[in-house]
Structure formats: C-alpha cells, structure tokens
Design goal:
single chain, two-stranded antiparallel ribbon, three-stranded antiparallel β-sheet, 16% strand, alpha+beta
Length: 115
C-alpha cells in the first residue's frame, strides 16, 4: 500500500499518519487516499477545522449552503453526507463520531499501521 501513487501527479503518497485534505477533493493519509465530492469535502473540512469540538447539523448545513443560496436546504442531507464520508474515510483510519442530540465530530486518527 506504500507504493500507491498520487492520482494527480503520480508521486508516491506520504506514508505518515498526517491527514491531508486538498481543494481538489482528495484526502490522503498513511499512503492511501479517498476522493470526495464537493459537499463531502465541505463537511470534512468543517469537521476538521472544529476538531475536537462538536459541529451541529445546523452548523454544517450553514457551512455548506452559504455558497448555494438557490436551493432549499434539508437538514437530513447532512446525515447522508456523513454516512458517505464514513465509508470513504474508514480505510484511512479516519472516524466521524455521532454525538446524539448535538452533532458530529472528527475523532483523532487511529494508527494506519498493521498490528
């Protein structure tokens, strides 16, 4: 897995445990990567900026829809994007925690090394 090339430039991906999120929607950690949609990227970025604090669904919705005033936001869409993010980020050892009644938070990254 350490020889995985970057999908953009072809260079080897960094093997360290640092979480890297770029503006093109790529998330890199531990020699692996995930590709995110614009909305998933916005949710993850908001959670990372707030980490370790909790970000409510309403706050996340406001973060996402400040750029899209032409649409009527639906609060449940946050749950959908978090679900999709969890699936994409799990192989990278990145977890999003649900804090019932309060919102979501990005948990500290687990080790990506095999034990």
């Amino acid at each position: 897995m350490g020889d995985t090339p970057c999908p953009c430039c072809g260079q080897p991906l960094p093997l360290d445990g640092d979480l890297r999120i770029d503006d093109a929607g790529f998330v890199v950690r531990g020699g692996a990567f995930a590709t995110l949609t614009q909305q998933e990227h916005a949710v993850l970025t908001a959670l990372q900026m707030a980490s370790p604090r909790i970000r409510s669904r309403e706050q996340l919705l406001a973060d996402l829809y400040q750029l899209r005033c032409d649409e009527e936001p639906e609060i449940k869409i946050i749950d959908v994007w978090v679900c999709k993010l969890r699936k994409k980020l799990k192989p990278l050892g990145i977890n999003i925690d649900t804090v019932w009644g309060r919102g979501y938070r990005l948990l500290p990254c687990a080790s990506t090394e095999a034990t």
